[in-house]
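Private note to self, pasted from the team thread so I don't lose it. Backbone tokens:
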């Protein structure tokens, strides 16, 4: 009788071109870079990949799912040819085929959470870099064109948002979330990050610009530590 090959029957194959060129430093660097982006599971045979997955499941108290982890490791090792894997049942093949044909499919709340996090990241990018466009002119507008003290003032105005974000904003996240909840904390910091760029635009002296960016940094630090973790 002709028996189907099992996972443990195959031998690992290593192509000659995958070995780094030790004699040529440039070639060696190129080969190392290639190894970084290629699928690391393909460095081992199918049987070794399955064995590692089973060990991982057992070591994390998931012994009842060792077979599932083994099949999942095979799919992760060669996701483009999962249709030919005899280890998968019909339900798993159907689910993988659907996922392959509908790459952007996902529950509404997943995309909603992603959108919120993206907007949160965008506000930080604007507050930190967009507002810095004023560096081209604000030092002249406020008479900070000299050397020594004026240079320090310009540097402090630029750096203050990062200093207050790390030294104040990051440390008040816990009490803000405790007393106002996650949504309340996000609302407060969103108002802060809306008002301070407007205030920066209406600043009439470097002291006012400094104060606006001081508060802006606090809002950035508090917002970053909350928006980035929707769970």
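Design output:
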């Amino acid at each position: 009788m002709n028996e189907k090959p099992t996972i443990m029957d195959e031998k690992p194959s290593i192509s000659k071109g995958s070995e780094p060129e030790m004699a040529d430093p440039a070639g060696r660097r190129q080969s190392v870079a290639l190894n970084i982006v290629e699928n690391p599971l393909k460095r081992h045979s199918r049987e070794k990949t399955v064995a590692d997955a089973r060990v991982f499941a057992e070591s994390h108290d998931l012994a009842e799912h060792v077979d599932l982890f083994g099949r999942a490791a095979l799919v992760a090792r060669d996701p483009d040819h999962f249709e030919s894997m005899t280890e998968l049942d019909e339900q798993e093949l159907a689910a993988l085929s659907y996922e392959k044909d509908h790459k952007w499919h996902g529950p509404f709340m997943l995309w909603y959470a992603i959108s919120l996090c993206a907007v949160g990241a965008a506000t930080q990018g604007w507050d930190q870099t967009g507002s810095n466009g004023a560096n081209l002119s604000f030092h002249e507008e406020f008479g900070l064109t000299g050397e020594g003290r004026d240079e320090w003032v310009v540097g402090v105005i630029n750096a203050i948002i990062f200093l207050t974000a790390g030294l104040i904003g990051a440390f008040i996240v816990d009490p803000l979330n405790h007393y106002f909840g996650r949504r309340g904390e996000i609302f407060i910091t969103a108002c802060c990050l809306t008002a301070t760029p407007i205030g920066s635009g209406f600043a009439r002296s470097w002291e006012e610009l400094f104060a606006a960016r001081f508060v802006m940094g606090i809002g950035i630090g508090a917002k970053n530590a909350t928006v980035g973790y929707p769970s």
